[in-house]
Specification:
- The protein is α/β, with parallel strands linked by helices.
- About 35% of the residues lie in helices and about 15% in strands.
- The chain is built from two helices and three strands.
- Strands 1-2-3 form a three-stranded parallel beta sheet, with no helix packed on it.
- The protein is globular, with a radius of gyration of 13 Å.
């Protein structure tokens, strides 16, 4: 049997009214993700608290090479 794991390389969540709490949960997940290459979160309602938690998770995630936070 082939039990290969699926890898998430790109996450796109644009204009989805994500606020700080949602970004904190996303940050917790990407901190552990070792395959994520691109993350796009533009046009959401992210504030300073959410960005703070995102910055902490990015210190531990070494695979991410592109981040989109357009507003």
């Amino acid at each position: 049997k082939n039990h290969s794991k699926k890898e998430t390389n790109i996450i796109i969540i644009l204009a989805n009214t994500i606020e700080n709490e949602g970004l904190i949960r996303i940050s917790e997940a990407i901190k552990e993700n070792k395959t994520l290459k691109k993350l796009y979160l533009g046009y959401n309602k992210i504030g300073n608290d959410g960005l703070f938690w995102l910055s902490l998770s990015l210190k531990e995630n070494k695979s991410l090479i592109e981040l989109g936070l357009e507003s």
